[in-house]
# Entry
Amino acid sequence: MKRSRQLKSSHGGTIFSFVLFAGIIIWFLAALSNASEASDRSNINALRQSVENGISLCYSIEGSYPESIDYLSECYGVVYDKNKYIVHYECFADNIRPNVTVIAKED
# Structure
């Protein structure tokens, strides 16, 4: 009778350990996913800031805003991974600051 109780309690402890381990793994994967999303947002913000800095630099040197993102890349070293991001650069006139939108491409 005692041995039967020991087997049942031992079996229950194994199940508890397995459930606890599975819970920790799920929590870890969720944390990784959140960290990845935060990193992606940070990269988008860094790229947008880089483009904005290039726009300001161009205006301060030339007295007009750049006509395209390609001009910023060629003359002011603003580079980005075109396979990973879309940079929408909308320039209305050379004396009005362009609108910049950065979007991550889906894998």
